[in-house]
Amino acid sequence: MKERTTLKKSFKAHWIWAIALGSSIGWGAFVQPTTWMGSAGPLGVIIGFGIGALLMMLIAVSYGFLIKSFPVSGGEFAYSFVSLGRTHAFICGWFLTLGYICIVALNASAFSLMFKFIFPKVIETFHLYQIAGWDVYGMEIIIATVLLVIFGYSNIRGTGLSGRIQFIFCGVMILSVIGLAFMVGVQPGSGLSNVKPLFPPDKTALAAIISIVAIAPWAFVGFDNIPQAAEEFKFPSSKAFTLIILAIFFAAVLYSLMIMTTAMIEPWQGLIAKDHVWGTGAAIGELLGPIGLLILAVALSMGIFTGLNGFIISSSRLLFAMSRAKILPEAFSKLHPKYKTPYIGIIFTSVIAMFAPWFGREALLWVVDMSSIGVSIAYFYTCYTAFTLFKVSMKGDYDPAIHTVSPFKKAVAGFGALASIIFIGLLLIPGSPAFLGMESRIALIAWVLLGFVFYLAKRTEFNRIPKKELNYLILGKEKIVSEDK
Fold first, then answer.
1. How far, in Å, CA of 182 to CA of 477, rounded?
2. How far apart are CA 480 and CA 472, in angstroms?
3. Would the pLDDT of 294 be above 60?
4. I need a labelling partner for 445 at 20 to 30 A (CA). Which of 245, 339, 350, 390 fits?
5. Of 145, 142, 177, which is closest to residue 22 (Cα–Cα)?
6. What pLDDT is attached to residue 433?
7. Percent share of the chain, pLDDT over 70
8. In 3D, which of 484, 398, 477 has the Cα closest to residue 1?
9. Is 11 in a helix, a strand, or coil?
């Protein structure tokens, strides 16, 4: 059997926490507050994200257990293989790849949007064309491309550089958000009186909250970057659960702080009615002037940079793991001769994301909207796998090497699997507050069909790999999966 390629253990615990938190926050916390308040009101958004965070923490119980049991690259791809076999591993990996690369692309696009707001005359040059009502400019494509090149290169240079950068960026982002909240809070005319009404008048409180809970998989996606890097932990994998919980908690706090900061500036319904390209930016710029806008721009930049960095790490590790299992071409599992990083996956992710700005922001959002489906599918596989490995008692088929007796954790894992199904239902069932738009559904169908074609092309070769060899390639052990699935 050919020797299995492995990654160097170089990620420190606080770097991994920063990867999870920074990836969870991204650009949305700083660009989307007015959009979210328009659909749910300030309190509806905060409660919705609070409930979403609690649900993610329940799902995190399964992640913590599986990371400890199987500290390998690939995360959910490996977990779905453990419980349901090779076909389901491919399905999970396929949807996750889409979700990760879409988020990389959207973060790069969001950076150009920030420049477009602050320096419109610089960005609005070299007009190319219009897609779905969105003007595409050559300069915003250049900025997004340069950003992707920089972060792609830093990731190729090694986990030490990318991990250290991630932690610094997260620290700056947290300080910037706290600073903005304080500066807005002490201004005359701003305050809690502007937060009323707490919910939109045309919606029930429950419907408002549900519309936000439904996007929780997208809002908190990032904590699941931790298992993708598990093979590179320079600390005991048992710490992973604590790091995930801390990342989700801080993400919920930062989301809530940005909602409150935006809502306190002026009556939020009036702010939304102005229909600014960047509502939070316009409101803070008007209240605090250039200094406030600069701090917000720094916070947004840090959110974008941490999201880019975290998801480039995760997508390249997922591609590496799928390639090592011989689902994807062998090139993705090759390591850089000097830096020992999966550089082909890093380059591939960065290059694919470079195409996004050419299609305009609206077209990109159609694809990104459906990435919540992919993430929810990954959550389901993870919770289901944990559910099968947690046992109520030592009776029956019990293997102490992979099973743990914990009725409570088994119940939590089962609830996590159910919550994941509910998330998928909220996005796919007509009439739901979070039902995907027509364009997003078309994009989802296209991705499913593409995956089906790809799987048919690789199925014979993939199924020919012996069970023990596949166990070894994916999990590093020959005797884990008891049945030949």
1. 52
2. 9
3. yes
4. 350
5. 177
6. 65
7. 93
8. 477
9. strand
Return d(Cα 181, Cα 56) in angstroms, integer: 26
Residue 101 CB-half CA count within 13 A: 24
Prior bond of 466 cis (ω within 30°): no
Helix (H, G, I), strand (E, B) or coil at 137: strand
Give residue 367's pLDDT: 65
Residue 325 CB partners (closer than 8 Å, separation 6+): 74, 77, 81, 89, 470, 473, 474
pTM confidence score: 0.87
The predicted model gives 305-319 an average pLDDT of 91
Q: CA distances (Å), 259 to each of 21, 239, 263, 415, in order?
A: 18, 31, 6, 29
> How far is 178 from 193, CA to CA, in rounded Å?
20
Using DSSP's 3-state secondary structure scheme, residue 325 falls into coil
Which residues contact residue 431 at a Cβ distance below 8 angstroms, ignoring those fewer than 6 apart? none
| Number of C-beta neighbours around residue 113 at 10 A | 23
Give the Cα separation of 143 and 141 in Å (integer). 6
Residue corresponding to tokens 């009036």:
270
- The C-alpha R_g of the chain, in whole angstroms, comes to 22
- The answer to whether 363 and 109 have CB atoms below 8 angstroms apart is no
Give the tokens for residue 473: 């390639």
- pLDDT tens-digit profile of 5-15? 888 888 899 99
Report angle CA 137, 121, 364 to the nearest 5 degrees.
30
Q: Name the amino acid, one letter, at 129.
A: Y
